[in-house]
Amino acid sequence: MTNVGFSIGTVLGGLALSHDSPAVYAAELLGGGSMFIVSGLAYLWLADPGRVPKPSSASRWLVLRDRPFAVVGLINAVLIMNAGILNIALPIWIVEETNAPASAFAGLLLVNTVLVVLFQVPMSKDAEDVRGGARALLRSGLWLASCCVVIALAAGRPPWAALAFLAVGVVLHTMGELLYSAGTWALSYELAPDHAQGQYQGMFGLTSQLGIAITPAVTAVLIVRYGWVGWVVLAAVMATAGLAAPAVARWAERCRPDAAALVPAET
């Protein structure tokens, strides 16, 4: 659903750019702001799911002592940089190092969003528990690594060949992105105790924001300064994170805090 909205927003943004009118820009900004308000108010209509009883001795800072979960979060921080590959590194690469037209980026981005809309649910079907989520992250890292290598091969090619490599790279990236989403959703929720979902999701969200924050600098510097070598480095980083996911997930599952153990025994 996020990508449905992203696709619609891309089209509407393109229409605004084609008119190049302050009135149109203002109308789209006001319309976007109104939709944020409506979507926020929609949460008031949701039914109360009830509360999970909290063990009397449960800590407010339980997640900070869960080191395996922190390492899972670090893997998440690395793999979430896939967004920067698509939104930052790719357009820079197209303009600076390939013979493809700069306008090709818009089409490639649309391909990505359409594929996500069509295949997010099917690609997520096997990532419904810790092991499935870990396998998804393993495959995600390898798909993202291959995408980096293929995109790097677009440099110096004739326009048609560059477009072909870029298109294949975006498809590979999308597969990695879909598996990343499925894997991280599974691990972030399945590894968290029911009574501490709030603090665990807060911690996991923090690692996501960490990855998002460093992505522009990391991807831009690697691509602008080191060219195809930077793509190889990105590929190695993605593959390493993916390959580490299954072992780290098993470690985190073995050490998962047991809510029952926190409840004082009755006398």
Query: Structural class, from secondary structure content?
Result: mainly alpha
**How widely separated are the two ends?**
51 Å
| Alpha carbon gyration radius | 21 Å
**H and E string:** HHHHHHHHH
Overall, the morphology is globular
How much of the sequence is in beta strands?
under 5%
Largest sheet: none
Based on DSSP secondary structure assignment, what is the total number of beta strands?
0
| DSSP helical segment count | 9
Average pLDDT number: 88
Low-confidence stretches: 259-267
* Share of helical residues: over 70%
Write the layout of secondary structure elements.
Blueprint: H1 2-19, H2 22-42, H3 67-79, H4 82-97, H5 104-123, H6 130-152, H7 159-190, H8 197-226, H9 228-254
Helix pairs in contact: 1-5, 3-7, 3-8, 3-9, 4-6, 4-7, 4-8, 5-7, 6-7, 6-9, 8-9
Characterization of the model:
This protein has 267 residues and is mainly α. Helices cover 75% and strands 0% of the residues. It has nine helices and no strands. The protein has helices at residues 2-19, 22-42, 67-79, 82-97, 104-123, 130-152, 159-190, 197-226, 228-254. Helix 1 runs antiparallel to helix 5. The radius of gyration is 21 Å and the shape is globular. The N and C termini lie far apart (51 Å). Residues 259-267 have low confidence and may be disordered.
